[in-house]
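Kindly go through the following sequence and its backbone structure tokens. Advise at your convenience whether the structure tokens fit the sequence:

___
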Amino acid sequence: MYVSALELVDFRSYHHVTVSLEPGVNVLVGENGEGKTNVVEAVGYLASLGSHRVASDTPLIRNGAERAVVRGLIVRDERQLLLEVELVAGKANRARVNKSALPRAREIVGILRTVLFAPEDLSLVRGEPDQRRRFLDDLVMARTPRLAGVRADYDRILKQRNALLKSAASARGQFDSSTLQVWDEHLVSTGSELLQARLKLIEELRPFVGQAYQDLAPGDRSAVLSYRASWLPGEQEQPATGGRDGLVAALHAALEVSRREELARGLSLVGPHRDDLVLGLGELPAKGYASHGESWSFALALRLASYALLRSEGDDPVLVLDDVFAELDDSRRSRLADMVAPAEQVLVTAAVAGDVPHTLNGARFTVAGGEVRRET
């Protein structure tokens, strides 16, 4: 799978630009602020309807414009697909495949698969749990696109349930608990499905992460993954799966135990929105104990493992390295270049051409003045 052409209209800094890309390595070089990251951000948006830089779509629309359009011509199994997403300020986005409108924009998720690594990914190791939850859920949805709907439903249910708990907290006991029980059932139904998908993902991702970390940073300490659910009782951290039924039972039991505190605080305290992906180096947690180089290697290992897992399932995702090489020492640059070179398509951005190892041969582009020009 690869992107052969990309067209941006009023996306970020671009009024209108078209870029013809090649299979293999594509390197975009430009000074900071010239828009090279905007190009790969658009590719990622076509894949996931999300940005690795901002939480909302508004900043993606060029200042002064009412809408933005991202079009990408995708080659997959020798078949071409034209993907298009229209971002409209203050309104629902629209998506098309081969010029045919989709009923819901999120149905485009999963047609194009990408794995993107950027400097912001250091927060996967050093940041808060919400960054790691997003990492898990983005990969879950890339593997199983229908779970994008489950995640959206869970977020909606959580918002409604929190509003109900907040109103209950101010009602001082004058509250009909039957309404809350209805939202409990909705939360358990969607939450258990999301939780089951996360636990399955971690189990399958674990060996790929361990291998990628060793390839990047050979040494004694190994990279390990585990799952922590803060709502479980006692010292237990990860739910004993027992299948979907076991997760449903665990969530119901936790809701019962937490009922009084939830009503007092006006907040949902049980569910996958409270969980964390725990990263470890040997016996120690990576957060707080990993060195700067180890943290970079772990963050890279998570992305490279994601790529390897998706590839093992039959699709070769587009691999995006956004301004990564400048952050690495020479040995890690060389190892990373060797690891990504065989990918069907790699998109690399850099402020300085010399930061990209010479082993990554391929198409080169200069990004400047609102244009993306192919070097000859």
Observations:
- The two ends are 25 Å apart (CA to CA).
